[in-house]
């Protein structure tokens, strides 16, 4: 019998990795493998439900990097390995990873915007022959807000990666917002390229425009939107922006489409 897409099912928490005072990655037992950039609806009975992008995946598990910002996430943070969390999904479209093959790739992400691209970055890390080059700019507010520290150190060994802090200093991190470092990317050496930008809408817009100033074409830029979604399947309308349902048509969009329809 086919499962009802609106019914969540309990999944056991396998482990928890604390990144900061407010962010933690939960590894959850799950056989529903997401594509790169897809999201799940996470819930607890009588508490609430929210969309969370998968930040990791592997045989029999999916990972979610969650920020403690409300009633649901506060309740999730009170759980321990062995407890259950309710999931349904995955939902939405994904990054066109096959299209990125044999090209130079630039990934720009801000804060928790690094989570939705982590499965894709790890894919390219495990398969370095897939892209001509992988370039990453990842920005955080300050040293206390840095996520995925071990992964960043690992990625720097294989990729052209710039990690930044909006304020403060720390070894291995540049100062300033991600937009201040886009001109360091060697666009003039790229024969064919694609760009992925994930973060708050304002950050994505200005980062995309900075890429355009450096000679990038808007049609080669991809963005991913985080938006309040209540059903995940296009029924409730909470994620609708103009004529676009983010849960169905996204969360991944080509910037050429998104800039006028989703970023007004």
Automatic annotation (TrEMBL):
Gene3D superfamilies: Nucleotide-binding domain of ferredoxin-NADP reductase (FNR) module, Translation factors. Residues 6-97 form the FAD-binding FR-type domain. GO terms for molecular function: 2 iron, 2 sulfur cluster binding; flavin adenine dinucleotide binding; metal ion binding; oxidoreductase activity. One of its GO terms (biological process) is pyrimidine nucleotide biosynthetic process. Its cofactor is [2Fe-2S] cluster. [2Fe-2S] cluster binds at residues 231, 236, 239, 247. Pfam families: DHODB_Fe-S_bind, NAD_binding_1. CDD domains: sulfite_reductase_like. The keyword Iron-sulfur applies. Keywords: 2Fe-2S, Iron, Iron-sulfur, Metal-binding. The keyword Zinc-finger does not apply. It comes from the Bacteria. Binds 1 [2Fe-2S] cluster per subunit. PANTHER family: ANAEROBIC SULFITE REDUCTASE SUBUNIT B, DIHYDROOROTATE DEHYDROGENASE B (NAD(+)), ELECTRON TRANSFER SUBUNIT. This is Anaerobic sulfite reductase subunit B. It comes from Eubacterium oxidoreducens.
């Amino acid at each position: 019998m086919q499962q009802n897409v609106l019914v969540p099912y309990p999944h056991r928490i396998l482990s928890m990795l604390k990144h900061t005072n407010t962010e933690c990655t939960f590894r959850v037992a799950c056989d529903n493998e997401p594509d790169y950039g897809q999201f799940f609806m996470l819930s607890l009975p009588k508490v609430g439900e929210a969309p969370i992008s998968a930040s990791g995946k592997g045989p029999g598990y999916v990972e979610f990097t969650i920020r403690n910002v409300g009633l649901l996430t506060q309740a999730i943070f009170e759980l321990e390995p062995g407890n259950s969390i309710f999931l349904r999904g995955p939902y939405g479209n994904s990054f066109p990873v096959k299209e990125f093959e044999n090209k130079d790739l630039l990934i720009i992400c801000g804060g928790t915007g690094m989570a939705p691209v982590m499965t894709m970055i790890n894919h390219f890390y495990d398969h370095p022959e897939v892209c001509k080059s992988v370039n990453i700019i990842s920005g955080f507010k300050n040293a206390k807000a840095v996520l995925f520290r071990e992964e960043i150190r690992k990625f720097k060994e294989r990729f052209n990666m710039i990690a930044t802090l909006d304020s403060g200093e720390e070894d291995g991190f540049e100062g300033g917002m991600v937009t201040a470092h886009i001109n360091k990317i060697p666009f003039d050496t790229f024969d064919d390229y694609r760009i992925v930008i994930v973060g708050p809408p304002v950050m994505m817009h200005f980062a995309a425009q900075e890429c355009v100033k450096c000679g990038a074409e808007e049609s080669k830029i991809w963005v991913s939107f985080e938006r309040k979604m209540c059903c995940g399947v296009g029924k409730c309308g909470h994620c609708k922006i103009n004529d676009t349902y983010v849960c169905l048509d996204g969360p991944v969009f080509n910037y050429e489409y998104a800039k006028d329809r989703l970023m007004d």
